[in-house]
Amino acid sequence: MSALLETQNLKKYFKTSRGLLHAVDDVTFTIQKGKTMGIVGESGCGKSTLGRTLIHLLESTGGRIRFEGRDITSVSRRELKKLREEMQIIFQDPFSSLNPRYTVEKAIQEALRLTGRYSPSQIPKETDRLMELVGIDQRLRTSYPHELDGGRRQRVVIARALAPNPKFIVCDEPVSALDVSIQAQVLNLLQDLQENMGLTYLFITHDLSVVKHISDDICVMYLGQMVETSPSDELFTMPLHPYTKALLSAIPTIDIHTPMENIPLEGELTSPVDPQPGCRFAARCKYVCEACGKPQQLEELRPGHFVSCCRAKELNM
Ligand SMILES: Nc1ncnc2c1ncn2[C@@H]1O[C@H](COP(=O)(O)OP(=O)(O)OP(=O)(O)O)[C@@H](O)[C@H]1O
What we know:
With 317 residues, this protein is an alpha/beta fold. The chain contains eleven helices and twelve strands.
């Protein structure tokens, strides 16, 4: 296995009238080639900002990003153009990523043209290939986005993302706006594409049952920080951080093999503006103690399973 994307203490802060908002704060992880890293956490914990910062839609405030072993933290305009092809993003709302005046065919052709790799005579054939790859019926080539259901619209968005032949795709809540039955179809498509094309995904969602289905590894974020990361199965059978346990307790239907303590998630997220040092979950944690006021270290308690909680060992071992 080799790493496709690595971050080291990645930070993205926003200047606001209230102070410096720490949207992403010291996030360190590695995504292996051909694998999926799921990112979970409540709304506002920094998932989308992380995804956008990784692919340079936002400029990082600090830390490092490596892609295929190269440091891509700061890149020239020319390198950025190439990176933008290798790293794509799919958003939750396909409507916002599709031009309402473009038919399916035109939307895909435009994405192909932008790559600059195809001659005008090659584009129709490539369009057919992409439509087939994402499972859009040829009869829909002249349909407009508003004439398609959400699942088909998302397939068009995926076809456009595939046009430059990317290696890495940030999937930002790609099925959250879809009916459950259609969600499964789009997730299966993403998995098939991954298998056939060796794609690597960062899969952002607030829905734990979705992330469990699709991820190899999962990273749990809380107020801009990574509080736990682990192989997917283990996160569900043996969560170590009180916040992860609380998130899992909130979904009664999830298939958890080991009986687990039920921890209700109470209280609201505290402000991400000028946060205090120490554990950001402390204000909502029933295990809070004096040591939680100090900066927490990410510690590997089991192979590949890291947690940032000074009481994790004592509470779980
Ligand atoms: N451009 C911006 N300027 C200022 N603050 C921002 C900006 N973009 C995001 N934020 C703030 O950064 C924090 C993280 O937001 P982000 O959208 O990344 O979270 P999220 O986990 O993806 O949430 P959601 O699931 O609701 O999309 C939030 O407090 C948000 O208000």
